[in-house]
Amino acid sequence: MKTDPESHQRMTQRRKEGFEKKLAAADQEKGLLIVNTGSGKGKTTAAFGMAVRVLGHGMKLGVVQFIKGALHTAERDFLGSAAHCDFVTMGDGYTWNTQDRDADMATARKGWESAARMILSGDYQMVVLDELNIVLKYEYLSIDEVLDVFSRRPAMLHVVVTGRHAPDKLIEAADLVTEMRLVKHPYREQHVKAQRGVEF
Amino acid sequence: MKTDPESHQRMTQRRKEGFEKKLAAADQEKGLLIVNTGSGKGKTTAAFGMAVRVLGHGMKLGVVQFIKGALHTAERDFLGSAAHCDFVTMGDGYTWNTQDRDADMATARKGWESAARMILSGDYQMVVLDELNIVLKYEYLSIDEVLDVFSRRPAMLHVVVTGRHAPDKLIEAADLVTEMRLVKHPYREQHVKAQRGVEF
């Protein structure tokens, strides 16, 4: 990658032109349906990183945490204290903690009612639905019902859905889908436990 | 995935046991070297999502943005206003904006000096080095010099490195590596432009 100054300048000039051409072609603005899935880390944290951008711009953010409400509180403590953020936590920890499908379905339904209200209200610029994919995978909610609400959202509202196992229908409907892929994980290889600031 | 209550309970019971077994085996705590790479979205936002957790716990965070300091300010505005966060932005936008390799190298060096100071100070629980991978790929900094500082960091300090093209040596040294893989992107398919709250 080391180059002389002239060829470096030619390379950066070409790259700049390519970038500007792409920029000129991209002239649409719209609320995006964004999905972070895959078995790697970073699905939820990437959503909260966008949430930080939204709040940094003074835009209004809604968050519904579907599954791990009982576990992850640091992001709620920090983001939830922002003036432009409404944060709803549902769920009694992971599903294996309740071992009761009916109770889980009722919790999912309650979370979805909050989510649908936020999405259709017109009050928000971004709504994050953390771990909704898990709820859909277990069929605690119907994907068709969820997609119907998404399709009726305000034109400029961004919706961010996280969790493993995003359903095919959701990926089809989405504008932006990222798979977080595990390359190396200290849990397995080094017996490192979940740590404050990283996992929760 | 629909099951009767009994088999649902057996399934969740098994899952709970597996989870608890893994938990018991994982008894180590250590500062992790975390790398978010790949050509998909979410590398920087996932780092800032962890940053939110760190700040939510009242832990101290350091951030050095190596490349896009001139572009992305929303996260700096929001996180940088937190009492426990030191935020340093370097870089004159992307490299193709300067078209001057010597200037880029000097900027990288200055950013790295701040980063090394934070890492070795003992004052932080997490240091985020945003887009350091790009700087390493262009050989604006030597990977050996960077790894040497990482290896001398306090035992409980988490370091998070983002950017495409993480060097092999960095991946080898890292504890936790995630590849963000693009599945679907609205830039290309729908000519959607970079939008407030999502890309910046």
Automatic annotation (TrEMBL), chains A, B:
InterPro entries documented for this protein: CblAdoTrfase_CobA (IPR003724), P-loop_NTPase (IPR027417)
User: Which biological processes are named by the entry's GO terms?
Assistant: cobalamin biosynthetic process; porphyrin-containing compound biosynthetic process
| Reaction(s) catalysed by this chain's protein | 2 cob(II)yrinate a,c diamide + reduced [electron-transfer flavoprotein] + 2 ATP = 2 adenosylcob(III)yrinate a,c-diamide + 2 triphosphate + oxidized [electron-transfer flavoprotein] + 3 H(+); 2 cob(II)alamin + reduced [electron-transfer flavoprotein] + 2 ATP = 2 adenosylcob(III)alamin + 2 triphosphate + oxidized [electron-transfer flavoprotein] + 3 H(+)
Keywords (A to Z) from UniProt: ATP-binding, Cobalamin biosynthesis, Cytoplasm, Nucleotide-binding, Porphyrin biosynthesis, Transferase
Q: What is its main location?
A: cytoplasm
- An example Gene Ontology molecular-function term: corrinoid adenosyltransferase activity
Name of the protein: Corrinoid adenosyltransferase
Please tell me the species this chain comes from.
Pararobbsia alpina
